[in-house]
Specification:
Length: 394
């Protein structure tokens, strides 16, 4: 067998990348969608890595998770709104069902809307925890773009976000998928003939995935090298991502809204890239003080009771109450009422100097301020003492 014949199978094997035969599996009647699983996996990675970076910068453990409770839902809604707004013709018009706009599990999340509305949710979470939004954005920047890379795997399962036909060795095979009824269904169907793909195209989803990982490495390196802060790490992530999105977007051939014959996401990328670069050039200053990243403690934090002044935390009330319980009983007792409030029989005329005992004279000679420093006795005790003095005077 010649060397040419040995090389032929290898060349054929490397000629393309197969798409998954399906993107949805069923556990009984419940569909398990690869697209949704990839999005969830990306979110988990972003939270875990973002939390580690936040703690390394001086922040409190668990804050990233608390803020994600607000940022993630806002981001998902924002991403879907942007997609529906720019690809409105898929959901509105003759033969379209507007309710399909709610089917987020079928794909269709615009990163621009996700970041914009997700930032609103993050701002709410940051205010609740008392931490600066810019510092939070810097901490999660590389984790966020890594999450985007993981999410792009969902496009692979859905056979979407690809480019024009190609003969490059890494071309992506697109299969014809049909559902149980024999109807063509790229989302819920299964490939009927993986040996005869419909087309071999540029895997633009893969290009973006790899580009995102490179940007994540760049952001981490720049952050460590220059100790960036005040939102500049996040701005670098935005600039890096949009720079790659421009050329990747221009390679895509899937349906999209066009402006002046160019895909609208190209214009969006250019505008956002310019804003990010301006921010990087204008904003200066050192990284935020780690103490500012601690924020206010909430119930469940290790130092919740150690910061009684935190607004709304209730720590002050709890700590003050504990301190009062530890005080001596004598310090808690109310001072005795003035002499006017004492019974009349307790008021006796002072003894003449000649009749006073030596001890009594010494007591009378003590300064008034020294007497005031001593805790006053109760009214009953004072009455008894006065009665004894009266007996001696008689």
């Amino acid at each position: 067998m010649s060397a040419h014949n040995l090389a032929a199978p290898a060349t054929s094997f490397l000629a393309n990348i197969p798409s998954p035969p399906q993107g949805v599996w069923y556990i009984g009647p419940v569909p398990l969608r690869a697209y949704a699983l990839c999005i969830i996996a990306g979110i988990v990675v972003a939270i875990l890595w973002g939390d580690r970076r936040w703690q390394a910068r001086g922040g409190r453990k668990g804050v990233v998770t608390d803020i994600a409770v607000f940022a993630v839902p806002f981001g998902l809604v924002g991403g879907r709104l942007y997609h529906v707004a720019t690809d409105w013709y898929k959901y509105f018009g003759p033969g379209r069902n507007p309710l399909d706009a709610l089917k987020i599990w079928e794909g269709g999340l615009g990163i621009w809307g996700a970041v914009a509305l997700g930032a609103v949710g993050a701002w709410i979470g940051c205010r609740r925890r008392g931490v600066p939004l810019a510092a939070f954005a810097d901490a999660i920047a590389p984790a966020l773009i890594t999450a985007q890379a993981i999410g792009r795997l969902g496009n692979w399962f859905n056979q979407e976000l690809y480019g024009s036909p190609t003969s490059v060795p890494w071309g992506l095979e697109i299969y014809r998928r049909v559902n149980e009824d024999g109807m063509v269904d790229q989302n819920y169907g299964r490939a009927v003939d993986q040996g005869a793909p419909l087309a071999v195209v540029h895997p633009t989803f893969l290009y973006e995935l790899l580009w995102n990982l490179l940007v994540a490495v760049l952001v981490v390196w720049a952050d460590r090298r220059f100790r960036m802060g005040r939102g500049r790490v996040f701005a670098l992530y935005v600039a890096g991502y949009t720079a790659g999105r421009v050329w990747i977007e221009m390679m895509r051939t899937d349906a999209a809204t066009h402006l002046l014959g160019i895909r609208i996401n190209v214009f969006t990328s250019l505008v956002v890239f310019a804003l990010a670069v301006i921010y990087l050039l204008v904003v200066r200053g050192k990284r935020e003080d780690p103490e500012r990243l601690r924020g206010r403690p909430l119930p469940g934090d290790d130092d919740y009771d150690e910061e009684p002044g935190a607004a709304g935390s209730g720590g002050a009330t709890r700590v003050d109450a504990e301190n009062r319980d530890d005080e001596p009983d004598a310090a808690k007792s109310e001072p005795a009422q003035p002499d006017e409030a004492q019974p009349d029989e307790a008021k006796s005329e002072p003894a003449e100097s000649g009749d006073a005992e030596p001890d009594e004279k010494a007591a009378a000679s003590k300064p008034a301020d020294e007497k005031a420093d001593r805790p006053k006795e109760t009214s009953a005790a004072t009455s008894e003492k006065s009665s004894e003095d009266s007996d001696r005077d008689e």
